[in-house]
Structure formats: structure tokens, C-alpha cells
Specification:
By secondary structure, the protein is α+β, with helices and mostly antiparallel strands. It has one domain. A two-stranded antiparallel ribbon has the order 1-2. A two-stranded antiparallel ribbon has the order 3-4. The two termini are 22 Å apart. The structure holds zinc ion. The site of zinc ion (ZN) has 7 residues, from loops.
């Protein structure tokens, strides 16, 4: 499950320009910060990140159970 989620992209907002950068969960696990295209170094808030993961995790679980129903 965790490995599958590594390929899921989530949107990271820049606090300076508001631009959203998409990074995969696998990338975020290996990086504590990223540089926005505006040049701002954005630190990845671990708590916010966990909330985002939780959202993805739930929707992914919903998706899987929907698939299982579909395959019956
Ligand atoms: Zn920015």
C-alpha cells in the first residue's frame, strides 16, 4: 500500500506566491523542502503532509473498494 502511494502526486502550495507544485509522496518522503519556481524555499510541514497523506489514503481505499465491488 505504501509503495503504491509513493507514486501519488499531491499539491504543495507555496506560501510566497501561492503557486501549487505537484510532488509525489515518494519524493516528499525523501525531501524536507523544495524550491518553488518563484525561487522560494518551501519547507514541507510534516503535520500538513500527514493530513494530505491521510486524505489520499482514504480516497485510495475508497477507490479500491469501489474496484472490488465492480469486479464482482
Ligand atoms: Zn512560489
Amino acid at each position: 500500500m505504501a509503495d503504491v502511494l509513493d507514486g501519488v502526486e499531491i499539491e504543495l502550495p507555496c506560501e510566497n506566491c501561492g503557486r501549487v507544485t505537484k510532488k509525489t509522496i515518494g519524493w516528499i518522503k525523501r525531501n524536507a523542502q523544495y524550491t518553488c519556481t518563484c525561487g522560494t524555499l518551501v519547507r514541507l510541514d510534516a503535520d500538513q503532509f500527514r493530513r494530505e497523506i491521510g486524505k489520499v489514503d482514504r480516497s485510495f481505499a475508497d477507490f479500491q473498494s469501489a474496484l472490488k465491488k465492480f469486479n464482482k
